[in-house]
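User: quick one, sequence for these tokens?
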């Protein structure tokens, strides 16, 4: 992702009203698009899509066209801050001088990784604005231009037509167009474009009247009138096993947010299950519901984001709602308690669902019918488990729609997780900001309206969650516990306690001493629930409040990751397939994991193999469900969500996404500002024999030992070698960078015929470049045992120092020989690296 450096370089912010950087208010909302009409030296439309923390931007001279046959030139320009979406008015001086009007804005979505699609040169996406709707394409042009040229093309869908951007100008923009016209010809064109104003294309509506008559004829239907205010939903009881018999139907338990729809006089209102309005957050769903053309209705369903397998992706949903991703959202509808003047709440469930299915037969793709199976509950649950779904919901076929929790709806969940009230927090430690962990409680089984401490959760948070939660609890709370404590925990001495309000859902591995959660990890903050819902839920289960709830199956394992297109050849010269890459990482996993777990990691993805486009990726993308994410500050000062492997499942999921190489930071997620590794990359220039590279590594090893520093050896999988210095407990990056620079410079000065410490390739001939630049915050080095995206699939291999004499090259080990080598080894060549206690205090002075 590009920074805002070019944007800031081109502007004098003492003379322009344009925003200099992002506004904090732009965070934690859906990814937006904006189109601005810019009367600069040449009138054009600026088309902008939010990708991460910036607006990717294109200048479209003639504006978007709704005609799929028209390819509109779109010239790529510098990234803009997200806060630029709100800019209107005059740019009075310098770059971009002229008047700016906002033509349209809204949210946008795309199926897959936006950055990867842009890298490949074809982005498919959907817009949800007032003027621009439906599917679109951005396709990179082969034309040689001073700036990258693309084409903006309308997709063939229900919104396509002969409408042009100028047809949609309002009176304000029309005045700007006329005022900016400089010649009689441009004034005539402006007058003509404004005069031919056309309506925004609309999608086809459902057959409302025919369905309304069918609804009124259903047994149990009653004539009634409703408004579009909140209505109470029917809720499910938790059960360990599904019911049997054909009097039950079974649906997928979608892992998302419950959303209720109330329509009156054609106006759509969306509500969360705790009566919060959601129209502003879901304009795509509102537009889709409006396209049905209904006058009055009540619908019930779950808001989800779907991954590539069609499974609900809760992490993807949260990332999309916070602006970190652009996944298409789908409203999975499963009930219709009211329709066009008929109260259907007493009509049997199966009949309500049949009517709902007909209503959605021609609905936009963002509205979907939640299908079901009748009977065979155990088989349905087993299939849901095999497909790694959240679970199932079982409902009585003939049941009415009754608000509250009853015995007609049952939920059977697969994952071991539960919901707890947030009752406090601990202060942050190290480089972590906001808070250390959240304190959790469950309803007290002995005291009405009471709560019992359940433990702490400090992992699983993204940096965005840390920021927003930290802001909400800042300076709040009391040192006095607000819940019952079973024992004194010294870690809670500095805790701040608050009244139960927010709800957190966490994964955990059972309950330990004092009924505290073992190894809890945050699944999500349930913004759709409040603490009182947990009390009601426990009482509804027919058990004392606070009883731990059991789940039948644990979280995902490496076996859960399915490798698609396993036959795809990713190393074409050697015939190595995607499945062989996955098998390699599975075989070396216990050796590979320690070098990447909990470290921000850049990866090299080659989705179609090394013969085609490969690219670096370091930020979170839609679809990743088992990979850790953390929001970290970049060199430009902006923040971005970085990925990091949590376990073997994370690694194999990344391989499924086409990853071949792993390049971790020299620090961990817990302490990103403190390095625990220093890496010297010995990179030989042309005409350098291998024996000189080996001798150079030995010299670096001896020189470090003279400074009192232990070091370890690794091949790079390329031409050179890495000499790695562990630091424990770690050092600030500034100190590490100063040491690495001083060490490399001293080495080059002492041995000018062997080493060079400058990055210039022109000066490297016959010399070994001591690359110290990998030792700064955000820089990476290839991981031990990582493949390289090069012929023969070489591997970066850790070695003992006494193995260096037998080594023939920096790419001596590959995908086939590495597992054989590891099968012969009794111990890790780097055994004990994490126990070495050493730092850099005073070392730079020794170099001087």
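Assistant:
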């Amino acid at each position: 992702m590009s920074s805002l450096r070019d944007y800031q370089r081109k502007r004098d912010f003492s003379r322009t009203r344009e925003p200099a950087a992002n506004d904090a208010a732009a965070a934690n909302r859906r990814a937006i698009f904006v189109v601005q009409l810019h009367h600069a030296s040449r009138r054009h439309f600026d088309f902008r899509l939010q990708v991460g923390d910036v607006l990717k931007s294109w200048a479209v001279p003639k504006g978007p066209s709704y005609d799929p046959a028209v390819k509109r030139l779109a010239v790529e320009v510098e990234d803009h801050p997200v806060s630029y979406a709100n800019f209107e008015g005059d740019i009075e001086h310098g770059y971009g001088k002229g008047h700016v009007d906002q033509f349209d804005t809204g949210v946008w979505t795309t199926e897959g990784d936006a950055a990867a699609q842009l890298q490949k040169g074809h982005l498919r996406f959907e817009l949800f604005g007032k003027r621009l709707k439906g599917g679109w394409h951005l396709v990179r042009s082969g034309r040689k231009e001073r700036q990258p040229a693309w084409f903006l093309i309308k997709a063939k869908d229900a919104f396509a037509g002969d409408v042009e951007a100028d047809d949609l100008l309002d009176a304000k923009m029309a005045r700007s167009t006329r005022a900016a016209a400089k010649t009689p010809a441009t004034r005539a064109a402006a007058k003509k474009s404004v005069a031919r104003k056309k309506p925004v294309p609309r999608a086809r509506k459902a057959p409302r009247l025919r369905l309304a008559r069918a609804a009124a004829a259903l047994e149990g239907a009653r004539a009634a009138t409703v408004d579009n205010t909140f209505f109470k939903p029917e809720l499910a009881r938790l059960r360990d096993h599904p019911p049997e018999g054909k009097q039950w139907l079974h649906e997928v338990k979608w892992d998302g947010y419950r959303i209720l729809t109330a329509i009156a006089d054609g106006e759509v209102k969306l509500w969360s299950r705790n009566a919060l309005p959601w129209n502003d957050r879901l304009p795509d769903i509102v537009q889709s519901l409006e396209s049905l053309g209904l006058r009055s209705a009540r619908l019930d369903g779950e808001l989800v984001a779907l991954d590539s397998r069609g499974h609900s992706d809760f992490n993807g949903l949260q990332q999309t709602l916070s602006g970190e991703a652009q996944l298409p959202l789908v409203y999975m509808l499963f009930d219709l308690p009211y329709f066009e003047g008929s109260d259907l709440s007493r009509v049997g469930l199966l009949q309500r669902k049949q009517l709902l299915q007909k209503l959605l037969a021609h609905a936009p793709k963002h509205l979907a019918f939640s299908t079901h199976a009748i009977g065979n509950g155990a088989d349905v649950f087993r299939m849901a488990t095999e497909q790694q779904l959240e679970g199932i919901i079982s409902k009585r076929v003939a049941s009415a729609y009754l608000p509250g929790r009853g015995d007609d709806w049952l939920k059977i969940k697969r994952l071991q997780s539960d919901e707890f009230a947030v009752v406090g927090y601990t202060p942050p430690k190290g480089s972590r900001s906001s808070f250390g962990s959240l304190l959790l409680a469950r309803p007290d089984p002995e005291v009405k309206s009471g709560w019992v401490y359940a433990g702490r959760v400090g992992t699983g948070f993204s940096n965005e969650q840390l920021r927003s939660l930290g802001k909400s609890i800042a300076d709040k709370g009391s040192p006095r516990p607000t819940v019952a404590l079973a024992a004194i925990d010294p870690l809670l001495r500095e805790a701040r306690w608050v009244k139960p309000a927010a709800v957190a859902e966490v994964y955990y591995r059972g309950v330990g001493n004092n009924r505290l959660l073992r190894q809890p990890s945050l699944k999500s903050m349930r913004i759709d629930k409040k603490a009182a819902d947990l009390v009601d839920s426990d009482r509804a289960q027919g058990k004392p409040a606070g009883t731990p709830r059991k789940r039948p199956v644990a979280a995902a394992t490496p076996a859960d990751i399915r490798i698609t297109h396993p036959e795809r050849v990713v190393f074409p010269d050697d015939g190595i397939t995607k499945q062989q890459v996955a098998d390699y990482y599975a075989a070396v996993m216990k050796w590979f994991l320690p070098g990447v777990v909990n470290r921000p990691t850049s990866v090299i993805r080659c989705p179609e193999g090394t013969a085609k486009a490969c690219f670096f990726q370091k930020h979170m993308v839609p679809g990743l469900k088992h990979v850790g994410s953390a929001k970290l500050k970049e060199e430009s000062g902006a923040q971005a969500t970085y990925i990091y492997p949590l376990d073997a499942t994370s690694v194999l999921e990344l391989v499924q996404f086409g990853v071949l190489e792993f390049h971790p930071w020299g620090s961990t997620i817990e302490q990103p500002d403190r390095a625990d590794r220093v890496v010297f990359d010995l990179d030989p220039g042309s005409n350098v024999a291998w024996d000189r590279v080996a001798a150079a590594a030995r010299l670096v090893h001896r020189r470090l030992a003279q400074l009192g520093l232990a070091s370890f050896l690794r091949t790079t999988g390329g031409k050179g070698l890495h000499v790695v210095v562990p630091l424990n407990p770690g050092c600030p990056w500034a100190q590490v960078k100063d040491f690495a620079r001083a060490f490399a410079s001293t080495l080059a000065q002492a041995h000018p015929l062997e080493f060079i410490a400058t990055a210039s390739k022109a000066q490297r001939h016959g010399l070994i470049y001591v690359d110290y630049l990998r030792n700064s915050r955000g820089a990476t080095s290839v991981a031990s045992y990582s493949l390289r995206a090069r012929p023969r699939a070489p591997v970066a291999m850790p070695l003992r120092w006494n193995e260096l004499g037998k080594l023939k090259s920096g790419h001596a080990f590959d995908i086939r020989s590495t597992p054989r080598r590891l099968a012969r080894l009794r111990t890790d060549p780097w055994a004990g690296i994490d126990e070495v206690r050493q730092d850099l205090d005073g070392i730079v002075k020794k170099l001087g």
